[in-house]
């Protein structure tokens, strides 16, 4: 993407929480088709962001702005409780191997592009900006099994489905996808 009207900005947890209005508006526009499920309500999104995600170690968000309009965001943080994901990944990615000592995985927690701007490269721009500097060896994300467009995009960006999980009791069952960020030799 080379549009001079587009910029990406990185925000830590404190900076992210100051973006409540544009984040909530963008979340609603990008999840409008899911509003019959309370899990996808903007209020639930904001509650998860404030209580669970932003307080996490090394939380970061990248937002794409076109002029002064937020057109997309992606955020995540590392997880130290990642043994189950390592196990799933090691079955699908046999060269990866499960670490013998605990090793964090980067969790690509949330990603959205305004429907009016989808298909223009913003998703890839945000994806790459968020992952480019991560030191973890592996990243994972959760995606709805019925979200074919997102799954195809993730696959084209190097993600592979390795299983399914229900992250919270009130959440839907989601596909687990992983992406190798750095390949280290097996020990």
Keywords:
single chain; 187 residues; alpha+beta; Aminopeptidase; 6 helices; 7 strands
Short description:
By secondary structure, the protein is α+β, with helices and mostly antiparallel strands.
Could you please describe the fold and organization of this structure?
The protein is of the alpha+beta class and 187 residues long. It has a single domain (6-180), classed as Gcn5-related N-acetyltransferase (GNAT) (Aminopeptidase). 30% of the residues lie in helices and 28% in strands. It has 6 helices and 7 strands; from the N terminus they run βαααββαβαβαββ. It has helices spanning 13-17, 20-30, 42-53, 83-92, 122-131, 148-156; strands at 6-11, 60-66, 69-79, 105-113, 138-143, 160-165, 174-180. Strands 1-2-3-4-5-7-6 form a 7-stranded mixed beta sheet, with helices on both faces. α2 (20-30) packs across α3.
Q: Can you lay out the helices and strands and say which pair or pack?
A:
Blueprint: E1 6-11, H1 13-17, H2 20-30, H3 42-53, E2 60-66, E3 69-79, H4 83-92, E4 105-113, H5 122-131, E5 138-143, H6 148-156, E6 160-165, E7 174-180
Parallel strand pairs: 4-5
Antiparallel strand pairs: 1-2, 2-3, 3-4, 5-7, 6-7
Helix pairs in contact: 2-3
């Amino acid at each position: 993407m080379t549009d001079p009207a587009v910029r990406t900005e990185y925000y830590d947890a404190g900076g992210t929480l100051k973006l409540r209005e544009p984040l909530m508006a963008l979340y609603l526009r990008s999840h409008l088709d899911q509003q019959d499920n309370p899990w996808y309500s903007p209020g639930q999104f904001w509650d998860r962001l404030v209580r669970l995600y932003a307080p996490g170690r090394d939380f970061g968000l990248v937002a794409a702005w076109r002029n002064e309009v937020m057109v997309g965001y992606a955020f995540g943080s590392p997880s130290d409780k990642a043994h189950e994901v390592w196990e799933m990944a090691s079955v699908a990615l046999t060269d990866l191997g499960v670490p013998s000592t605990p090793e964090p995985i980067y969790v690509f927690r949330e990603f959205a592009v305004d429907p009016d701007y989808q298909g223009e490269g913003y998703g890839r721009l945000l994806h790459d900006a968020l992952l480019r500097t991560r030191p973890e060896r592996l990243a994972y994300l959760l995606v709805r099994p019925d979200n074919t467009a997102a799954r195809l995009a993730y696959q084209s960006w190097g993600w592979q489905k390795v299983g399914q999980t229900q992250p919270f009791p009130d959440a839907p069952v989601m596909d687990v996808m992983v992406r190798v960020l750095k390949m280290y030799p097996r020990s």
